[in-house]
Amino acid sequence: MVARTDALIARNGLSYRRAGAGTPLVLVHGYLGGSAQWQAEIARFSDRFDVIAPDLPGYAGSAGLPPAKRIATFGAAVVELLDELGLGQITLLGHSMGGMIVQEIAATHPDRIARLILYGTGPLGAMPDRFEPLDTSRARIRCDGVAQTIRRIGATWFRKGAAAQGFEIVAELGAQATEAAALAGLDAMSDWDGRGALGRLTMPTLVLWGDGDRSYRWPQVETLWQGLPDAVLAVVPGTAHAVHLEKPSLFHALVEDFVGG
């Protein structure tokens, strides 16, 4: 059983979870996610790291905040939290859309990022090989609502679909977002392209990917791996888009090895 970490509220209204002490390790969730998805990681790493996990504007504990329509807006909210907490250099991990956000932060604040982990993500927000076009997801949100859409989309994030361990936390977190926030997130991804900045992200970077990921296919992952100046690649077999929930022990071992234990 993983001990739960209660949410805190920043001055800008952003909800976040924090535990531990030491070098800051910041965990940024993805589209329709939330900080509660990182409970196992907070428990695992808080004995050696100051682990901080925000709820992005419009999602989960920050659902009452105005939706962000640009990746840079999400990034600015995270940086504002880091400033409030007085954090210097950090290790920064981003999953899925969160991976785009941390690429944006690393490009605009490179001196603050000691190590970067790009997990289940890519450098192009339009995701040309995604399991369905972003426009289809927009239409289904408007037709079916957010709660039903996250159950449909979230099932593609696991090899075992809706039967997978971890699926219900994904569905629960996603359902907390408003329709406006869900649509704004799709707009933010559609408009973002980080390929031109890859060469400037010189910090040591781990690119971590599940080999069955249907959101970010291999061409996106390969572009990250080959385009970053100092990147290592970890491909986790038998997983999809939610490696940290599908194979948590292996996910933890890979992250731990990269950050130096």
UniProtKB/TrEMBL annotation:
Q: Which GO terms describe its cellular component?
A: membrane
| InterPro entries, per database record | AB_hydrolase_1, AB_hydrolase_fold, AB_hydrolase_sf
Q: Which GO terms describe its molecular function?
A: 3-oxoadipate enol-lactonase activity
Q: Where is the AB hydrolase-1 domain?
A: 24-127
Which Enzyme Commission number(s) are on file for it? 3.1.1.24
Which keywords does this Swiss-Prot/TrEMBL entry list? Hydrolase
Q: What is the protein's name according to its record?
A: 3-oxoadipate enol-lactonase 2
> Which species?
Roseovarius mucosus
